[in-house]
Design brief:
0% strand, membrane, mainly alpha, single chain, 57% helix, transmembrane helix
Length: 74
């Protein structure tokens, strides 16, 4: 008994398997690049918030008046 097995040609664009898997490598590449970018940005957020807090505290801190008074010392 002889059994013939046939496979669809890779050049056959009408194959549903090829249409379903088209671009999966590119999708995974973009997905993981985006995931890595988000993870990197999340690590920078605490440092940026600390820097902004330091700058705001420097500019909002009331400075003492060190000018000599015009009235003089009694």
């Amino acid at each position: 008994m002889l059994v013939e097995i046939s496979f669809p040609l890779l050049q056959d664009i009408s194959s549903p398997f090829i249409l379903n898997c088209f671009g999966i490598d590119e999708f995974l590449l973009v997905f993981f690049i985006g995931l890595g970018t988000i993870a990197f940005a999340c690590q920078l957020v605490p440092g940026v918030l600390l820097f902004v807090s330091m700058v705001r505290s420097i500019y909002s801190f009331p400075r003492p008046d060190t000018r000599p008074s015009a009235e003089g010392v009694e």
